[in-house]
């Protein structure tokens, strides 16, 4: 009997080790709250779209000699791509802000790739050829000039940094996300 229990314990520990090496993949589905051009909240889980970097919500860019809110336009593009659809995400890691890093789809649209294709997000990793096509076609951000989001963040305090310094703001944001998720489940709504 003792050998049998030891065998089960070893199999269990090996299974946990294998799962650990695979990064504990997480699959989620539901109606999201769009935070910005590369971040959503789904069923209370904050998700960063993996392999892309969209302008920060407060970021400004230049197009046809005029300043415009490119961060807000990127958010609107992600909302447009989602429409009223449910979103499914597969996550396999976390970023420095403890957001799940995920690849997400709304129906047949892979959102990570579509944001780069539309020109409203920059690629790193597997979407780089998609970014080249968006740049050559002058889509989205490529219609003008802009600071790469990473460079812009280096000179500005981001919303996530402010959240980290203000627990009350984080609590309110978490409650708001939970209420939005509940509303979406009940009424099947999407953000406008």
Kindly list the characteristics that best describe this protein:
7 helices; single chain; 44% helix; 7-stranded mixed beta sheet; alpha+beta; 192 residues
Describe this structure in words.
- This is Nuclease.
- This protein has 192 residues and is of the alpha+beta class.
- It has one domain (23-187): OB fold (Dihydrolipoamide Acetyltransferase, E2P) (Beta Barrel).
- Helices cover 44% and strands 23% of the residues.
- The protein has helices at 2-21, 70-82, 111-117, 128-136, 149-155, 159-165, 167-187; strands spanning 26-30, 33-36, 39-42, 45-49, 52-53, 61-63, 66-68, 87-94, 100-106, 109-110, 122-123.
- The strands form three sheets. Strands 1, 2, 3, 4, 8, 9 and 10 form a seven-stranded mixed β-sheet that branches. A two-stranded antiparallel sheet has the order 5-11.
- Helix 6 packs across helix 7.
- The longest helix is centred in the C-terminal third of the chain and has 21 residues, at 167-187.
Category by helix and strand content: alpha+beta
Number of helices: 7
- Report the helical percentage: 40-55%
Major sheet description:
7 strands, mixed
Give the CATH level 1 class: Mainly Beta
Radius of gyration from CA coordinates:
19 Å
Summed over residues and divided by their number, the pLDDT gives a mean of 83
| Unreliable stretches covering 5 or more consecutive residues | 16-22
How many structurally independent domains? 1
Question: What are the secondary-structure elements, in order, as H or E?
Answer: HEEEEEEEHEEEHEHHHH
**What general outline do the C-alpha atoms trace?**
globular
CATH third-tier fold name: OB fold (Dihydrolipoamide Acetyltransferase, E2P)
Protein name: Nuclease
Organism: Nitratireductor aestuarii
Pfam families: SNase
Domain TNase-like: 33-144
């Amino acid at each position: 009997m003792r050998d049998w229990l030891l065998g089960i314990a070893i199999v269990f520990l090996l299974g946990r080790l294998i799962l650990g090496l695979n990064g504990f993949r997480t699959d989620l589905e539901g109606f999201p709250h769009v935070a910005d051009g590369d971040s959503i909240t789904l069923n209370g889980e904050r998700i960063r779209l993996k392999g892309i970097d969209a302008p920060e919500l407060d970021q400004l860019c230049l197009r046809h000699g005029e300043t415009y809110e490119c961060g807000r336009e990127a958010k609107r593009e992600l909302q447009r791509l989602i429409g009223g659809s449910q979103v499914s995400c597969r996550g396999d890691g976390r970023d420095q802000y403890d957001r799940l890093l995920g690849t997400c789809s709304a129906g047949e649209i892979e959102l990570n790739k579509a944001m780069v294709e539309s020109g409203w997000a920059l690629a790193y990793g597997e979407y780089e050829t998609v970014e080249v096509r968006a740049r050559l076609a002058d889509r989205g951000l490529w219609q003008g000039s802009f600071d790469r989001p990473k460079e812009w963040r280096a000179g500005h305090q981001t919303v996530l940094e402010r959240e980290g310094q203000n627990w009350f703001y984080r609590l309110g944001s978490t409650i708001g996300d939970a209420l939005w998720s509940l509303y979406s489940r009940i009424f099947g709504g999407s953000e406008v």
